[in-house]
Amino acid sequence: MAITQTANAHWEGSLVEGKGNVSLDTSKSGSFEIDWKARAEEAGGKTSPEELIAAAHSSCYSMALSHGLTGAGTPPTSIDTKAEVKFQAGQGILGIHLTVRANVPGLSQEAFVEAAEGAKANCPVSKALAAVDITLDASLV
């Protein structure tokens, strides 16, 4: 059965001078301020679409990697994934870099990198973002 997740954004004003907020409605986790400066210059306590993409990608990727490792008989003890989404005004999203560090007892570095690459290719968010170059740095800890 398909599940629908919902977020809403409210914006007032022009792109550069305007401001708004985005709410995570399904989880009711909160509402976050957004503006152009947070997107193109510095966050200043506000979020951006790219930060939200990074959150979605890092969490989805960690789940996909955990699923793959467990299915292969080497369940992870822990997985930490950082997603860095690079945005350039006038050009858009230039790329995403994933850095993953995991503790997987009994797994070689080579086998881990193979599993990490598989998760990158098969994570639903990676698939949704296929138009963007996604790179990966994967290591066991």
Can you give me a brief rundown of this structure?
With 141 residues, this protein is an alpha+beta fold.
Features:
single chain; 3-stranded mixed beta sheet; 141 residues; 3-stranded antiparallel beta sheet; alpha+beta
Assign an overall shape.
elongated
Helicity level = 25-40%
Rounded mean pLDDT is: 96
Strand order of the largest sheet: 1-2-3
- Give the low-pLDDT segments: none
Radius of gyration: 17 Å
> Main sheet, how many strands, which sense, barrel?
3 strands, antiparallel
What is the helix/strand order? EEEHHEEHHE
Q: Which structural category do the helix and sheet elements fall into?
A: alpha+beta
Alpha plus pi helix count: 4
Span from first to last CA? 37 Å
How much of the residues is beta strand, in percent? 25-35%
* Quaternary structure state of the chains depicted: single chain
Number of strands: 6
